[in-house]
Amino acid sequence: HVQLVESGGGSVQAGETLRLSCITSGFAFDDSTMGWYRQAPGNECELVSSNSWDGTTYYADSVKGRFTISRDNAKNAVYLQMDKLKSVDTAVYYCVADQKYWGQGTQVTVS
Question: Cα torsion at 20, 26, 30, 34 (round to 10°)?
């Protein structure tokens, strides 16, 4: 069955760094577009970044230049390097495959 397991969230100070990881199984990872979404309390869920099977990447304007998405097809894993974190980045971050399969989420809190 499909599994997406996020890790790496936590509580940090503004300006610090976190690296989220998502380890997956149960679907054709190499052929999938992997994305990181986030949802802050009271806000809609938003796409933060994505990495398609051909390497095409997308970043929301709010994170361009600070976040970097990467993938390791050999490990069926996708990562989100988050630098220069801001308080507005506080949210639950979800790993998503093909806008269809979702992980359980990991909390990121920036103060």
Answer: -40
Residue positions counted in the chain: 111
The SS3 of residue 88 is helix
Alpha-carbon span 98 to 10, nearest angstrom: 26
Q: Which residues of the chain carry a pLDDT beneath 50?
A: none
- For strand 106-110 and strand 10-12, is the pairing parallel, antiparallel, or unpaired? parallel
Angle (nearest 5°) at CA 16 between 12 and 22: 75
Structure tokens at 81: 């390097």
Closest by CA to 30, choosing from 82, 68, 78, is: 78
3-state secondary structure of 29: helix
